[in-house]
Amino acid sequence: MDRIDLYDAQRKITRTFMFDKGNIPKGLYYYTVHVWIYNCKKGFLIQQRSKYTKNLPDLWTTTSGTVLHRETPIIAAYREVKEELGIEIDSNDLKLIYQYKRKQHFVDVFFIETNIELDKLVLQEIEVENVKFASKTEIQKMVERNEFYKYIYLPILNINIKNDIAANNCK
User: Fold this and answer.
1) How far is CA 101 from CA 109, 124, 168, in A?
2) DSSP class of residue 24?
3) Those residues with Cβ within 8 angstroms of residue 68's Cβ, 6 or more apart along the chain or in another chain
4) CA-CA distance, 135 to 149, in Å (whole number)?
5) CA–CA dist 19, 3 (Å, integer)
6) Which of helix, strand or coil describes residue 46?
7) What is the DSSP code (8-state) at residue 147?
8) Which tens digits make up the pLDDT trace of 93-105?
9) What is the pLDDT of residues 15-62, one digit of tens each?
10) pLDDT of 38-48, one tens digit each?
11) Ramachandran region of residue 120, left (φ > 0), alpha (ψ -120 to 50) or beta?
């Protein structure tokens, strides 16, 4: 079981850690990351969670996971992409596009534009059932059909990503 650090309400690390996210003491939080991978010619790389996962089985999502002991959110984002998809990304290319606090955890949302090919991926079968590229419109339709997890920041994500993509040339 993985060890996770706990943070105070100001996102400062405490000297407290846990092995189970189920009983977080009041006033303390753990950290998670979401990584939106974008290929300018194909769209967003999304993944269908395995039916065996505890959280969100069978739903389509973005790559995500918990920040572990002594990790930063950037290191956790890199690790989650490598674990779940079997590819290495350049962590210097990760852009923090949104942050929010849920009941017991903080979430950092990252965006990276990279030209990944599906045949290069090695899926972590215990967590990932399938992957595909999808446009923003396709993702929204999947949300409406309850096939894709409805992240609270999706409307903001569209604006932030649109601005980021406009700054880059798709080659």
Assistant:
1) 11, 28, 30
2) P
3) 2, 3, 4, 5, 76, 79
4) 15
5) 5
6) strand
7) -
8) 999 999 999 989 9
9) 988 887 778 889 999 999 999 999 988 899 999 999 999 899 999 999
10) 998 889 999 99
11) alpha
DSSP 25: P
Rounded Cα–Cα distance for residues 60 and 46 (Å): 7
Q: What is the reported pTM?
A: 0.91
Tell me the C-alpha distance between 82 and 122, whole Å.
Answer: 9
**What residues contact residue 131 under an 8 Å CB cut-off, 6+ apart?**
45, 46, 47, 48, 85, 118, 121, 123
Cβ atoms of 129 and 56 within 8 Å: the answer is no
- Class of residue 135 by CB neighbours under 10 A (exposed 0-12, middle 13-18, buried 19+): exposed
Cβ-contact 54, 21 below 8 angstroms: no
Contacts of 129 (CB under 8 A, 6+ apart): 47, 48, 49, 50, 51, 58, 123
